[in-house]
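Repro:
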Amino acid sequence: MGKNLLVSHEAAPLAGPGLSRGRRDPNKLRIGDGLDFWKVVDVKPDKRLLLVNQMKVPGKAWLEFSLEGTELIQTAHFYPKGLWGRMYWYLTKPLHKLIFPDIAKGIIEKALLL
């Protein structure tokens, strides 16, 4: 499962082909590329992908994918802005618990096809 798991976003497992706007190369993610409503802020092939949220939310949000051996670690980081930011995070937390496992599952399924 190891080779190109994080670089396999080349096949856009997080989004469909119509959501690859802002990407200079459809087969490789680079810093500054847009991916759905995220922007790539760090890429370390086969190790780490860090995305920053480009939607308007009451705070700052990042989504991080990293590899530890053959395990994919997906971490959501959110730094709320004020009380509304904290309320937003707690109100959307149940939704995130439904969505995030599907994102990770999609990445793993695409990687296994490589």
